[in-house]
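Thread amino acids onto this structure.
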């Protein structure tokens, strides 16, 4: 089995393990990661961390919307703005 990769337009790495070459993918030896693959992997790790932090923020601020529904207390504008940004980030970076 050999490792093949390609870098997607968003900088993420798509890595596959195959016995035969895969069209559009670049072969690399185990333990010999090209710089672009290493950077793509680092980007993927950071993106996953950012997604986790974003989801945690949404979870921690859900109560504002429950309070709005139950007692009609407005959600602070900064919370509304940040949640909208994070929801878009999550949608853009998940499949």
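Threaded sequence (95 positions):
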């Amino acid at each position: 089995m050999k490792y093949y990769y390609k870098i997607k337009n968003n900088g993420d790495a798509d890595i596959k393990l195959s016995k035969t070459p895969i069209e559009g993918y670049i072969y690399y030896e185990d333990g010999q990661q090209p710089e672009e693959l290493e950077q793509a992997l680092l980007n993927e790790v950071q993106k996953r961390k950012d997604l986790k932090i974003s989801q945690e923020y949404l979870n921690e601020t859900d109560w504002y919307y429950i309070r709005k529904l139950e007692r009609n207390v407005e959600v602070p504008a900064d919370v509304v703005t940040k949640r909208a940004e994070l929801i878009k980030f999550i949608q853009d970076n998940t499949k």
